[in-house]
Known about the structure:
The complex is a heterodimer. Chain A is α+β, with helices and mostly antiparallel strands.
Amino acid sequence: MSSWLAILLAAAVSASAPLTLETELAKGTLTVEFQLHEPLPEFLVEALPSGAAVDVNYQVRVRSKRKVWWDKKVWKGDATATALFDPVTGRFNCGLVLDGVIVSSREVETSDEALAWLANPGAVRFAMPENLRESSLAIRVRAVFSSSTKWLFFPDTEGTVWVEVPITSDQVEGAEDAPDSIED
Amino acid sequence: MTRLAEAWARYSKENRFLIAGFVALLVLSTGAFYLLERTQGASPDELTNRLLLFILWYLDISLILILTFILVRNVVRLLADRRRGILGSRFRTKLVLTYVVLTFVPVIFIFLIATNILQRSIDQWFSSPVEETLRTGTAVTVQVRELVEQRLLRQANTVADELAADPRSNRLPALRDLTGVDLLAMYEGPRLLQSVSDPRRIPTTPPPLQWERLPQSGVRSNRWKGGLLVRAWTPVNGADTVVVVGDMLPRELLLDLESTNAAHATFQEMKLQRGTITATTILVFLAVTLLLLFATVWMGLFLSRRFTEPLLAVAAATQRVAEGDQLEEVDIPASDEVGVLVHSFNAMVRRVQATRAEILASNQEMATLLATVPTGVLTVDRSSTRFRPNPKAAQILGMPDRAGEWLGIDELNRPGLEGLFDRFGPGQPRNGRWEVNIELEGSVASIEMRSTALPGGGQVVTLDDLTQLLQAQRQAAWSEVAQRIAHEIKNPLTPIRLTAERIQRRADHLDGEMREVLTSGCEAIIAQVTGLKELVDAFRLYAQMPRVDPRPTSISQLVRDTGSLYHGMRDDLEINLEMPSEEILAVADPVLLRQALVNLLDNAVAAVDASGSIIVSLRTAGENVILEVEDTGSGLPTEDFETLVQPFYSTKGRGSGMGLALVHRIVIDHGGTLEFENLQSRGALIRITLPQATVEPFSEPPHSDVPNAPGNASV
């Protein structure tokens, strides 16, 4: 009965979560696969066929959970899924940029495929620092669609809320298991 | 601690700038740190935009703070100056406020308009027509490519049909010529069987197609050799053999299409950064506006100080003059019209100072003249309510201590001065000559009064004391009378006396009653003749008063000698001499002065008919010698000075009545004054005031055989 209740609860949370994660930590490498459930903003969808570079930036933060003090920042990185339409060839060039380095790319035929790539660019592998207490780690991720300024100066972003899931060494699960949405 | 405070006070200005710089650096560092924290992972373009925004924002904030600080500081300083009443603060406040308003209103107005125009411009940049035009350009690119692809697909089908009907391999060149394509090839699986192409368009073998990822029939465009290679394929008769046809779009066309596409892509990317562009534009314009305001305000404040400093210096100098300070030149560098004003002011100051010095010298000369002139001068103000006497006038008016002071005209409204006071009443002419009598302290003085109106109002009145002149005239007249009387009377006296004496001698020979009658008659005649002779001698003495022979004389010795003559004259009469121990000297004629003192003592002795005393006192008062004879007699019959000094006036029933007249004449000839006073107790006081004059000390005091009397001597 309790397992059914947990499945129902996870399904309910998953339906409302804008982003789900699949993480795996093994041999100092954190593998994360993002799945964006929230539809991309209209300005991105409209900009894609024009040939403008469209990207979704996945901000990744790894924290060490602590009981008394606030969580300790362990690591952070960015993964950016890009899509660029080439009207001359009629195809979309998609890429995944990890901390400024292109780690994967592909060419898709349709805008739906390009948008799907932006929502799910595939698994990303991050090299984690050594000597981590793997039992208390958690990963926080949010997708950023655009950045702008507020009051003419202060940086502002448009994106999803932060989604946090715990990391275990043999864990292969998404936000359905233990989602935790935090407004940042 | 004190040293630190002194050092801080000494370098406070520099320290303020250091603190301001430190705070600015701190704010800048904090902002940069915050920005870097927020922009980690951002693209270089985004980072550049953020940095640019931050720098602009920081510049704007700094300018706003600096501008606010300058304005607030100056306004507070001006308000404080205004509250303290510092000269020029009101003018500077108005100037600065006017300048700030005149600067701020148009600049802010222009900023608002320009910002609005810029925003409208940005809106127009991203407006639908522009976007539609660019989108259409991209659509054209797509349509061109699709047209080529569709044509090639049809030609591939045609070639496939031809090859299906006649599968000879040597037909490919003919079919390529027939279809007009640039490339015609046959594949069996991934293996190329045969290929023909236009070497001008496709010089080398094109890259192979990824057959494993491609459908059985289709079209694909690839960039190759700077152009676009469009290839279409279709199977031949459903077998493994695939025919491929292709065209190479020229490089020029591709560049044009790509240029159009790039413009659309750039437009869309800029549209995504529209907020940043707007913010950057507004911040840049705001920075320019603030810089302009800062420059204009600073320049306005600087110019207001520079312009007003000379004016305020001139105004302060005039205010100092108005408050009674010395008129001095303004040492402020100035140019243009302000410089002309300053130079003119300084020239005026120099001229005024020169004129003032001349006036001062003239005034001093005039004051000296007025102080020394023997004529009394009254300066009356234009309202005839105040007057200022010179020393002589003050002496005439009986107020010697108030010479040179402005006095109310009512000071003249007192008994004895009515004749003078009435001349200043309303309706009285300002120009004229009058003779008035004033009576002060019992003596009447005849004053000739001349009034002259001043051009600027007011009047100058001269007072000439004619008393002595009139007295001299009277004396001259009396001398003439006395001389005539003496001449007319003296001549018959001797024959009368000789005749009376001869009759008396003849009568000695008679007897009886006749002898007694003649003898007594002759004696009476002789006595009367003797009296008449004495009278004539007195007349002659009065008429032929010898000229005064002034020489240094010991008045003390003269008084002692004369007083000793009356010692023991009467038992019931006491004569006291009161003199200081010091010798009192004066330039006087001792013979005449002794005569005067004798006359006074004679009168005093005659006045004291019963027991009494006579006090002769001698003292100095300022530059005068005062000799007083006081008795306890019956007193003066009158205090009328003119009557008392009139010749032939006598109440004694004997004597010539020339005593006081002679005394008066001697005193007048010595330049002194004579005063009479009835004492309240009993008796009279006669005072002789003589100028002491400068007397060289005697080498040997005259009458040195007479010892100096003590302070109070009784003889």
